[in-house]
Amino acid sequence: MAFWLSRLGVSLALLAGGASSSLAQTSDQPGGDDPVKRGEYVFNAAGCLGCHTESKDAPRLAGGRALKTPFGTFYSPNITPDRDSGIGGWTQADFNCAMREGKAPDGSSYFPVFPYTAFTHLTDQDLQDLKAYLDAQPAVAKPNRPHEVSPPFGWRFLLPVWQAMFLDEGGLPPAPGRDEKWLRGRYLVEAAGHCGECHSPRNFLGAVDHSKSLGGSADGPEGKPVPNITSDQQAGIGKWSANDIAFMLEIGMTPDGDFVGGGMNEVVSNSTSKLTAADREAIAAYLVTVPPVGR
Amino acid sequence: MGKLSETNGIIRSAAITIASASVLLAAASSFAQSPQPVSTDPAAVAKERETAMKSMGDAMKKIAAYVKNEGGTIEGVREGAAALQQASHKIVPNLFPANTGIGTVDGSEAKPEIWQQWPKFEQAATRLVTASDGLTTAATGEDRASIARQFGQVGQSCGGCHDDFRQKKN
Question: Which residues contact B48 (CB under 8 A, 6 or more apart)?
Fold first, then answer.
């Protein structure tokens, strides 16, 4: 409850005209001087909790959540600092390699159900902070459950080929003429928030179709449709104001008074409601400029 | 003017207390009744359900306008809270009889999990009942922060239920 109040405090302050200036991509990260605090913010922005925790009652971040995809069922791994079943023995280089190149310390490739095609754009600073936060969490000994994926998609040795085709490493491309707020919004949507993982359609190899970025997907998580969030007036959310988007990200209410579900409520409570108001506004500022994708 | 509006205020808040008490009473008595689907026709049930959900959405819109300070009024909040409360009390006993969801009724968004996990659904619906009762109580005053807090509780119960039990058509 106090949590909601403080959130309201933020938004009311904002409505009263007290909006703080938007945050730069790497500096002034919420959390100040404490790497763990800053990392917690990145952790929330990237929504790690949902996929890496089996259920509401299961040990936090110990993995095991089933992610059903058209290619089979994947089980998320343990990312607690446990040395045997978690990622406790990892160096920063190991961590960055996993997040940016989709490779485990033993050199094997991760299935792209782990959204490294988005995380690859995360800044060095954010990756360092994120690791600091994860290292500070309680270790849980819980072995990973093998994925249930049918051939040929389950053939891990094919993954480097997939990665060569679809993984564009490095930062997000320059965007001349865009302001800091828009850049921050793009970073939160495309890199940290990995919104396109659910909201963009995929090709037959399971890679996000960037020509229809955020244009909705017929088979998102659990094989269920996920809405188009481009600026398309009919198929997308082109009729929403930036304020409508920011408010939805804060409490989950759409402009018609409905409340989002189908997994998005979880995203709101785990991730977007925990961002600063300025960051939610940055996301909105970016989303209203996403080119329309019709149906 | 001070005296008059003060008296007015007292009368008004008394009226509201009585009004909300009677709403509570009506709700309690509807609880006491045996569960009664609004109709034996699945399509009619689904339609009624949609109307009830829509009315709750409209109510939330009204309350949000007040909470966000975007032209909403306290009267709108009270109307909205009453509508929410009324609809919320119907969910479990009247609006979700078996065989009225996806696969049975064309265009329904009610997932089979509702009936497969009925106790969990009931719990989620009860959360809305509690939250909208709380909102009605908060709305007897004019403290924006406490109304906002209850509004947030209602919103969380809406979203929580939709996460597990609704599949949008798109």
Answer: B38, B39, B95
By the CB < 8 Å criterion, does A247 face chain B?
yes
Give the pLDDT confidence of B98-122 residue by residue, as tens digits: 999 999 999 999 999 999 999 999 9
Nearest CA-CA distance, residue A8 and chain B, Å: 7
Closest to B61 measured CA to CA, from B155, B136, B166: B155
Q: Rounded to a whole number, what is the distance in Å from the CA of B115 to chain A's nearest CA? A: 17
User: What ipTM was estimated for this complex?
Assistant: 0.75
Q: What are phi and psi of A275, to 5 degrees?
A: -80, 165
Would you call A4 and B148 a contact, using CB atoms and an 8 Å cutoff? Answer: yes
Domain boundary assignment for chain A: 1-29+181-295, 31-171
pLDDT given for residue A152 in this prediction: 86
Lowest mean pLDDT among A46-55, A86-95, B14-23: B14-23
Cβ–Cβ gap A256/B57 under 8 Å: yes
Question: In chain B, what residues touch A232 (CB-CB under 8 Å)?
Answer: none
* B61-97 pLDDT tens trace: 999 999 999 999 999 999 999 999 999 999 999 999 9
- Residue holding tokens 């959130």? A7
CA distances from residue A232 to A217, A236, B151 in whole angstroms, order as listed: 15, 4, 30
Report chain B residues whose CB lies below 8 A from the CB of A263.
Answer: 163
Distance from CA of A286 to the nearest CA of B (A): 22
Domains of chain B: 2-165 (1.20.120.10)
